Hints:
By secondary structure, this protein is mostly helical.
Amino acid sequence: xxxxxxxxxxxxxxxxxxxxxxxxxxxxxxxxxxxxxxxxxxxxxxxxxxxxxxxxxxxxxxxxxxxxxxxxxxxxxxxxxxxxxxxxxxxxxxxxxxxxxxxxxxxxxxxxxxxxxxxxxxxxxxxxxxxxxxxxxxxxxxxxxxxxxxxxxxxxxxxxxxxxxxxxxxxxxxxxxxxxxxxxxxxxxxxxxxxxxxxxxxxxxxxxxxxxxxxxxxxxxxxxxxxxxxxxxxxxxxxxxxxxxxxxxxxxxxxxxxxxxxxxxxxxxxxxxxxxxxxxxxxxxxxxxxxxxxxxxxxxxxxxxxxxxxxxxxxxxxxxxxxxxxxxxxxxxxxxxxxxxxxxxxxxxxxxxxxxxxxxxxxxxxxxxxxxxxxxxxxxxxxxxxxxxxxxxxxxxxxxxxxxxxxxxxxxxxxxxxxxxxxxxxxxxxxxxxxxxxxxxxxxxxxxxxxxxxxxxxxxxxxxxxx
Length: 467
């Protein structure tokens, strides 16, 4: 367990509460909104797009938030995002008062779009603050909070359904939205401001970020992993329909992914922070996901004639583990790679990387169900799963090639950090860079901001890394 300061523990606490409550509000309408929409005369296509537009808006808005987080301010963006999500959740609870079909669907779209804008701001700011507050434990902290978010996504439909049975359509939205407003008040009082970063000029944009090959690979892996979960959400139920499972049993099958994602995500984060190259963790996650989609079909070319419930359970458990490995490792490596490739180690960079992560995840979540439904109708579930297999074969091969081609330096990672507070003199710097036989290695984490130092030491940096 890392040693955290009191401020870090408080930050973890409010993040955990906010992540859980936000996920509950975003997901609570799944069990009963379709029924309400149909009672107003809406078709499945219409209310299906109400769900789908959420991810599309997150995809569009997240890069914008990431680029301008240093001007908006991470704390303001975080709290404004939570407050927006909470108020739109409450507003969604009064749609049952509207009887006209077009008005009902139109307002559903409008509220869901605004809710997505709030959620995108919340996610981008929270990921950025994590990277700033926990620079030595980004992976483990991100994974732990993702566990809270995953638990909220699981609890949302359950709590929503229970409250719907008790008090009707409005009660779930008002009560759980009110809880999120209380969480927003808590974060406003406790969360650090990071005001020192708010006036800095932008040092790049998300398009420059994606030009870095390793970050582009991470973006692709995020999309592929997000497509995999969206694929199952759209097609697993009709695939298992022949077994005659009860709604409760089907619900438990869907929970397996999230439960094992939540269980293993902190482990993957700990490994990425201290023990294993995150790219290796991505490859492991890709192989787990490939195994899942070979089994859950099962693949037509495997010697398994029919899917069985035990095989499906095993496949979903493996998917939860692999899904977590890919998401946590890509988040960790993207932040490191951005700084290692010359982006400043500040909130602006954290915001751009976080916006990229949230945006690409949302894109995959939008593509996954859409492609899954079309392929399911066209070629059946068994062959449709090979689309996800192919995506993750590419992930495994691309990351393996990147690891092999990456220039490796001996004794990589064995550095001593010399802070500016130690008053390193110009003479001492000269000693570091003019030795011939025992020339110290400079950490690739330091950007070469001043070409006058060919050794890699940056004049503008406050930290120096030597072996």
